[in-house]
Amino acid sequence: MLRLKLFYGLLTIILLLWSVGAAALLLMGDTVTRFDNRLRMDYRSIDAAQTMRTLTATINTRYLPSLAGAPTEHVLDRTLYDELKKEIQVKQNIIHSDGSNDERWQGVVTRLDSAVASYFEGYETFFAGLAQTRGDREKLLQFQSTQTQRLTDLSENVMTLAEEKLFSGASQLRSESGKNTLFVGTLVLLGTSVAALIYFQLVRQLVDPVANLRRSIEEIRNGNFELTMPEPGQGSEFSNVVSAFNDMASELKVRRGENDESLLRANFVNRAILEAIPSPVFVLGDDTGIVQINPAAEQLTEELGVTGRLPLKIQRILDECREKSAHFLPEDPREALLFRIHEEEFYYLPRIFRFESENATESGWAVLLHNVSRIRWLDDMKTNLISTVSHEIKTPLTGIRMVLHLLLEERSSQLDEMQKLMVTSANEDCERLLVTLNTLLDLSRAESGTTHLALAPVSMKDSVARTAHLYQRAAAAGDLEIVTEGDENDYPQVRADPVRLDEVLNNLVSNAIKHSPRGGRVTIRQSQPDADYLRVSVFDQGAGVPDDSQSRIFERFYRAPGQKSDGVGLGLFISREIMRAHEGRIGLRERTNDLTEFYIDVPIA
Amino acid sequence: MSPSPDKGSSPGHRVLVVDDEPTLRLGFAYALTGRTTVVETAASGPLALERLADSSYDIMFLDLRMPEMDGLGVIERLRARGDEIPIVLCSAALSPNAAVRAIRHRVVHFLLKPVRPADLRQVMASVLDPAIDPLPKALEAARKGDRENAIRLLELEASKCRYAACWHRVLKAIQEMRPDDDLAGLEERVRSNLVLLAFNSAA
């Protein structure tokens, strides 16, 4: 109970104060009284001695002259003498009453008594009239003078002694007051030490807990929930505070424990998921510092000799993504990156996505490397197979075609109608088969070749001119006209593989011719839609692409329903592949003015 | 097949067809055989070299892709031994590398398979009897190793005809190339033109 302690402490000080004051007052009063008594006593003694002298002088004055003269008959009136004698005796008693034990004083008083007694004896002798003779009278006078002188001297002594006593009393008082000062000083010192004691007690009881509390709050702020404050003594005002504080700390500890636990669980789940993913996964912070990687990623980086780091190729893509703040989610296995591990080739398709917490405070990047080596291998196998098979079929087919052509020439012998019909039909099949084989070869070329573009600055104008020239004959066969527009503009060169670019243009123009009505017009127009691309559009006046086919015409082997023309539906697919490899664009524009427009955008060199 | 040399007034031509495909050999021979033209065939490069060593021919149709020894191998050996016989190189596809190598060995006639009989005869005629047209003349000059003359002739034609323009560009590039130049660099420069070099490419 701090309040009680405070009260007792202050009470002690007040009591001390009071007692010091009382003691001082008492001592002072006592000293004054004693000094007063002494003074009075000594003064009375002095006064008495003085009076005694006066009285003896008066007596002598009255009676001694008669002694000096001739003896007379008449008896002297002794009334005055008796009166004064009584007074002297009173004064004598007063001096007696100063019951001082001083030896000197006692000696003087005794001698004074004897002197007084002798003095009175002399006068009694006088009054008895015993000294009638002259000699006797002179003797008596002499005696009385001596006694008077003695009395006077003794009185003088008494006064001196009384004065002395007065002085000695004063010095005694002084010494006593010194003692009193010491006593009061001691009391003051005692009070001071009690006050100091109370101060330290108060500090311990009041300030220390507050300071402890502050320290503990500081610790908790720093995350040290393990701390508990020491319980103060029973009944302290701070016990409530401390126990409340400790409760709070333990509550926080429990909460944090729960948090830690759920975090641990979440972390565990995350790790389990990451470990279950067979593909290497990197989780990176916004600064692309690695936050977490899964065992597959660890193994990969180890095998690549870049333990714990992102392989450089991927870092580059990630940097690009960061610049654009965009995901990088390629689907095509051909965009996979090649990694050589122990002389073996592995293809990993990097999928990079940016993630953000709901309140957008946390963000980062996740990189998943999808191993597409097997897919790539199968794809390559397929491409090779198509290529090989096509070549193998094409070689004998050229022979067959040759023979059929020769038969149809009828140089050496005429064919009858039936024979001619059959050979013609066979020849048509043969031509169709050749077209198909060529397309398949194109496909395999596109699939294996788009990654090996020979990019160079190329004049789009030349490319367009080549295509226009190449299809002049085919267009003429369909009574079509090929028109080029935009040639006159001085467009910058594009960055392209000229052979591949021609292939795309050829394909678009060939399609346009195929779908044009007789007597129509195919327009090849160059333009520059923006600073980065040069555009070539191919317009035809055909029926256009059916709405539900529009999204699919660039797919592999897709052919719009109801098409009678030959081909296996690879042209646009291959074109798209080529444009993609050029980082260009290909597309179908919305139909305007009954014109179908296909366009390609090629990056400017 | 059934040559009838007695009927022609012009002296007969001897043609050698080299192809590993029997049907093609047959077809080529049948297509080219005429009243004054005799066609012989060889099934492989080494056989062709043998035949060429034994007797002389006016023109040879040579397949590029053959087992054992390919067309370029045959060309190189022939040229190495000083045989400047005109050669028409037939192939399904003309690679830049092959084209440049062939041209440097003075082989300037290419046919892309499949070939129509008419193309065969046309190319044979243009080689054996180059018309007064500048283009065949230029090609003949090139074939004979006079590249400068060929380039000069083609330069005049280049603006009129894409075929001539292509040839002009390719020959010029080859002409300007020094022996120690990187072949790949040249191929890169003439690559877009190579597909058009074949006699029947515009068809």
UniProtKB/TrEMBL annotation, chain A:
<dbReference type="InterPro" id="IPR036097">
    <property type="entry name" value="HisK_dim/P_sf"/>
</dbReference>
<dbReference type="GO" id="GO:0016020">
    <property type="term" value="C:membrane"/>
</dbReference>
<dbReference type="InterPro" id="IPR005467">
    <property type="entry name" value="His_kinase_dom"/>
</dbReference>
<dbReference type="InterPro" id="IPR036890">
    <property type="entry name" value="HATPase_C_sf"/>
</dbReference>
<dbReference type="InterPro" id="IPR004358">
    <property type="entry name" value="Sig_transdc_His_kin-like_C"/>
</dbReference>
<dbReference type="InterPro" id="IPR050736">
    <property type="entry name" value="Sensor_HK_Regulatory"/>
</dbReference>
<dbReference type="Pfam" id="PF13188">
    <property type="entry name" value="PAS_8"/>
</dbReference>
<keyword id="KW-0902">Two-component regulatory system</keyword>
<keyword id="KW-0812">Transmembrane</keyword>
<feature type="domain" description="HAMP">
    <location>
        <begin position="204"/>
        <end position="257"/>
    </location>
</feature>
<keyword id="KW-1133">Transmembrane helix</keyword>
<dbReference type="InterPro" id="IPR000014">
    <property type="entry name" value="PAS"/>
</dbReference>
<dbReference type="Pfam" id="PF00512">
    <property type="entry name" value="HisKA"/>
</dbReference>
<keyword id="KW-0597">Phosphoprotein</keyword>
<dbReference type="InterPro" id="IPR003661">
    <property type="entry name" value="HisK_dim/P_dom"/>
</dbReference>
<keyword id="KW-0418">Kinase</keyword>
<feature type="transmembrane region" description="Helical">
    <location>
        <begin position="6"/>
        <end position="28"/>
    </location>
</feature>
<keyword id="KW-0808">Transferase</keyword>
<feature type="domain" description="Histidine kinase">
    <location>
        <begin position="388"/>
        <end position="605"/>
    </location>
</feature>
<dbReference type="Pfam" id="PF00672">
    <property type="entry name" value="HAMP"/>
</dbReference>
<dbReference type="GO" id="GO:0000155">
    <property type="term" value="F:phosphorelay sensor kinase activity"/>
</dbReference>
<dbReference type="Pfam" id="PF02518">
    <property type="entry name" value="HATPase_c"/>
</dbReference>
TrEMBL record, chain B:
<feature type="domain" description="Response regulatory">
    <location>
        <begin position="14"/>
        <end position="128"/>
    </location>
</feature>
<feature type="modified residue" description="4-aspartylphosphate">
    <location>
        <position position="63"/>
    </location>
</feature>
<keyword id="KW-0597">Phosphoprotein</keyword>
<dbReference type="Pfam" id="PF00072">
    <property type="entry name" value="Response_reg"/>
</dbReference>
<dbReference type="InterPro" id="IPR001789">
    <property type="entry name" value="Sig_transdc_resp-reg_receiver"/>
</dbReference>
<protein>
    <submittedName>
        <fullName>Response regulator</fullName>
    </submittedName>
</protein>
<dbReference type="GO" id="GO:0000160">
    <property type="term" value="P:phosphorelay signal transduction system"/>
</dbReference>
<dbReference type="InterPro" id="IPR011006">
    <property type="entry name" value="CheY-like_superfamily"/>
</dbReference>
<dbReference type="InterPro" id="IPR050595">
    <property type="entry name" value="Bact_response_regulator"/>
</dbReference>
